[in-house]
Amino acid sequence: MKKTLLIATIAVFIFSGCNKDDADNKPEAPFLTNLSGGLGVVQFSWKTVTGATSYNIYRSSSEKGTFNRIGSASGLPTDYNINGFNFKRQYVDQNPLSGDNSYRVTAVNSDGESAPSNILTIKVN
């Protein structure tokens, strides 16, 4: 009886640990590095995240407002700096809001979505 209880306890411990490890494999949060606007568009970039297969783009009319998903981007970098390992990804919002536009990005892989990036805000007239 004691051996059966010990085996059952070990099995529960091992399988519980597997679920926790899966959650820990979500990508890290991206870091927005650049934001610019003009002629009715907003362009921004972020450092790529190791293991990310895509990115979700979110926008709000204020930093403390509700962020809505406005698009996505592949996990491939669009700006390379091989020697400095400075791989970046960029996105162009072709329909920004009139007034303040706050942006944040999440990285995505098969284990889920990261925490949100830092927030950058720009005013569009």
Give a description of the structure.
This protein is α+β, with helices and mostly antiparallel strands. It has a single domain (2-124), classed as Immunoglobulins (Immunoglobulin-like, Sandwich). Helix content is 18%, strand content 42%. The chain has one helix and eight strands. Strands 3, 4, 6, 7 and 8 form a five-stranded antiparallel sheet that branches. A three-stranded antiparallel sheet has the order 1-2-5, with no helix packed on it. A hairpin with a 2-residue loop joins strand 1 (31-38) and strand 2 (41-47). Residues 4-20 have low confidence and may be disordered.
| Overall pLDDT score | 82
Q: Work out the number of β strands.
A: 8
Major β-sheet, in short? Answer: 5 strands, antiparallel
| Integer-rounded radius of gyration | 20 Å
**pLDDT < 50 stretches:** 4-20
Key features?
about 120 residues; alpha+beta; Immunoglobulin-like; 5-stranded antiparallel sheet; 3-stranded antiparallel sheet; 1 helix; about 20% helix; about 40% strand; globular
Question: What's this entry about, in short?
Answer:
The chain has 125 residues and is of the alpha+beta class.
